[in-house]
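Appendix B. One record, verbatim.
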Amino acid sequence: MNNNTNKMSGSPMKRGPMGHGRAAVGEKANNFKGTMIELIKYISKYKISLVAVFLFAIGSTIFSITGPKILGKATTKIFEGLVKKVSGSGGIDFQSIEKLLLILVGLYLISAIFSFIQGYLMSGISQKISYEMRNQISEKINRMPMKYFDTKTHGEILSRITNDVDTLGMSLNQSITQLITSITTMVGIVIMMFSISWIMTLAILVIIPLSVFAVRKVVGKSQKYFKNQQVFLGNLNGIVEENYGGHQIVKVFNKEKESIEEFNKVNDKLYDSSWKAQFLSGIMQPLMAFIGNLGYVMVSILGGWLVIKKAIEVGDIQSFIQYVKNFTQPITQLAQVANQLQSTAAASERVFEFLAEEEEDQTVINPVNINNIEGNIEFEHVNFGYKENKTIINDFSINVKKGQKIAIVGPTGAGKTTIIKLLMRFYDVNSGSIKIDGHDIRNFNRSELRELFGMVLQDTWLFNASIRENIKFGKLSATDDEIISAAKSANVHHFIKTLNDGYDMVLDEEASNVSQGQKQLLTIARAILADPKILILDEATSSVDTRTELLIQKAMDRLMEGRTSFVIAHRLSTIKDADIILVMNEGDIVEHGNHEELLKKGGFYSKLYNSQFEEDN
């Protein structure tokens, strides 16, 4: 866990409850062949284990397909014995039959043992692949730029880690072993059938083109539905996650009906694609059973004729019928594997797309050492826009000295938060530079740069853990004394001591068992414990009572002592003591100076301040 993460007490950007920003279906065409090649490369690291799976699967299949021929020999012995007994020339040779049956039991037992071993190995491989993919996705998330998360829902990202990886792991476990077993079974059965009768074998092989044609038709139809099924499942997860996370907003604005309608709309699409995918998958069994029955008819007619001609034995008909049954079964299994591979490809494609997303450069050659950084910051002719054709910060320059308090004010959309995102390198400037102690921030390792910052945002973020663990998140090596000291500095220690479990009280998932003001004080304690060189504060006192507001303000004042601080100000009355006030409008700094200087100018800041003063009165 990076220290920069530890010092961020705010939450990442969230989507609204109505789920805007979800990816459209068919955003990228399904590249089945390319995805499967990439997947094969990915799992090639387990090639030794896969070779073992392959050998055990082949061994299991060989011992299994030898059985019907031996059983046919036993049937022939019984038939010949009965004929001899009826003609009075002898009887049934039970000793030979017993010997054949013991061999048959031994073959099936060895086949079962081999099948168990290959299943055990394949389960291990598929779970290792799932485990590794989840780790890679988790690590990838920490290397991805903020702009990715600004355009994706939480549910959509979670779907890659849960649904897609689970689907991939399960389908790999089933499809690889079935693929090996089915192909080996088909080849082995063909050899065994030729050893009995080449005429009947050629007659049976006529059904193969018919089977292949049926499989290709069904697979071709089902491919797009399996792809859509995974996409809609991710979209549905996004809606559920967002509506649950924002359920209070949904209720406040009476948007339950719209939320349900949106859910039903996507759920209907998921139902439609899933139904079609599963239906097409399901018709393979009866279709292949029908083709198999045609084989039984041919074996019965040809087999009887060949027995009369004494070209084969009676038991060979039984063996051949069993082989025909076993021959259609792997064709059916291959059809099922084809459908599983569609699901595998759809899930793999989404995972690989995520892993191939653009990453931030995490390290640089000869990075700046952060140990002696003091906190002097300089913006030099900074230009930036989230889109290339729309610049929102124009030629922005300012010098900030160590320990100064810088307030950033302005109307909504003026660019206040954007300045902070650039300072922490969530985004890089289009031109110009940002320097800390004379060093361009692009010459720092990104994680080390963020170790310099601590953040307290309006949107507090506390974990489903104890109060102690939440504060300790600012510094994982902190002692209990350090945690208590930070809580006292944040004016939250007294409140914690009044709780039944004190510092060990567990916050629920939404931290709803403490008030908004108490949550804010806990995030301030976390930032105090982190002891950063530079602070970023987004004032969050608008939704608390006056007494709590004073506690938060005092805690923030203690937090800012001796540190370079950037305060995004919403109530201008709280930043009168700022060393520099940057007044922003439409991406530009239109004024700067201290409170008294800006009021005397009678400009944009004066109008903002007076309008708030009038509203407060």
